[in-house]
Amino acid sequence: MTTAYWQEVMNRLDAKVTKMIEQIGGRSPHLAGEDGRYDSPATDWWTSGFWPGMLWIMQDMTGKELYKNAAWDWDKTLEQWFVRPSEELHHDVGFQFLTTAVIKNTLTGDADGLRRGLEAANFLAGRYNPAGRFIRAWNGDKYGWVIIDCMMNISLLFWASRVSGDPRYRQIAVSHAETAMQYGVREDGSTKHILSFDPATGAYLENFGGQGYSAESCWSRGAAWGLYGFINTYRHTGDERFLNTAKRIAHYFIAALPEDQVPHWDFRLADDKRIARDSSAAAIAASGLLELADILPAGEKSLYASAAERILRSLTESYATWDQPGHEAILLHGAVSGDSHMDVSLIYGDYFYVEAVAKLNGWKHRIF
Q1: pTM of structure
Q2: Could you list the residue range(s) of the whole structural domain that residue 319 is in?
Q3: Is residue 184 one of the residues assigned to a domain?
Q4: Residue 365 domain flag
Q5: Is 188 a residue of the active site?
Q6: Among residues 149, 266, 278, 350, which one is catalytic?
Q7: Is 368 domain-assigned?
Q8: Cys-Cys link to 331, which of 103, 279, 292, 344 (CB 3.0-4.6 A)?
Q9: Helical residues (DSSP H) of the chain, grouped into ranges
């Protein structure tokens, strides 16, 4: 690792994110298209925590009050959705409240951050299906659907168990991870996006492609969620099964990368017009690979650390908007799926890029 290189990238991020505060204002960004301007869906949308999460990381890394001031009220804004009608508040409360309430409490000791984080953990735990040992994903009539993304959200339950002393949160998280490991990860380390269970009996039914190319393909952002989520689960439990699962996904992900180290939106694309990169999958995987490297002995560490750094260098040098001061995002060339929003900037791509660069500069206040 070149320390000076990554310190300079952090300095560039400091200037960039400071500019983003001015540009974004009170909006809740999700994606930005050709005009370089982030949209602003309602704050119950699943991505609403990533912008304040970036601000908290930058505050922690720089000590600058402007970041804390811009981030401070976001957990209060999100809390309103627990008492207002919302079809968008679901298993992704982990993404929303880890990056707002939990990190706020972690960095400042704020009591409201603690309370709101536990409120979100209770909401997430309430979505647990004991028959199938899984956390239900979205709302609507898909009562038995589980998605790989939730492997990241269960970090909220591990945190809640630690700060409250109540083991039930942890038990739910481990049960969900075991189910996702059994049914959602193939032998070769590739991942499935959507799993379907009978919600009454808990019996496994089938899997769907979801945001991936097909049911038998491997959506690259889903693989990144799985890689990162299983290594998190190992960190919280010490259970070697989760470490080995994270390694299998990591090996698949690294081996499937194209020359520039940034994956297409699916690793098993057919030859069609929807071929496009997803910089968000790259950023998420890089941050997860750094977590994997962090817990391994020296002999193994370099494989994952080097892969993470190769990905991040490519993003830094070929996918970032350093020379586009009017662009509100950090990374270009993200993809939501093959059916929508190709070649856009995504706030979660920006968040995990900032998180990974912060880790390379010594950031220790992990929230996932």
Answers
A1: 0.98
A2: 3-360
A3: yes
A4: no
A5: no
A6: 149
A7: no
A8: 279
A9: 3-24, 50-62, 65-71, 74-79, 93-97, 103-108, 111-125, 150-153, 155-164, 167-184, 220-237, 240-255, 279-295, 298-314, 347-360
Q: To 5 degrees, how large is the angle CA 181–CA 185–CA 190?
A: 155
Q: What would the two tokens of residue 105 be?
A: 């409490």
Asked about 92 being catalytic, the answer comes back as: yes
Among 44, 60, 92, 350, the one annotated catalytic: 92
φ and ψ at 183, to 5 degrees? Answer: -110, -15
**What is the per-residue pLDDT across 296-328, written as a single tens digit (0 to 9) for each?**
999 899 999 999 999 999 999 999 999 999 999
Between helix 167-184 and helix 155-164 the angle, nearest 10°, is 160
Q: In CATH, what number is assigned to the domain containing residue 70?
A: 1.50.10.10
Residue 277 in domain:
yes
Structural domain tally of the chain? 1
For residue 68, count CB atoms less than 10 angstroms from its CB and return exposed for 0-12, middle for 13-18, buried for 19 or more.
middle
User: pLDDT at residue 274 above 70?
Assistant: yes
In the numeric block, which tokens belong to residue 144?
A: 């038995």
Give the tokens for residue 304: 């994952």
Residues 6+ apart with CB under 8 A from 259: none
Place of tokens 């089938």: 206
pLDDT at 187: 97
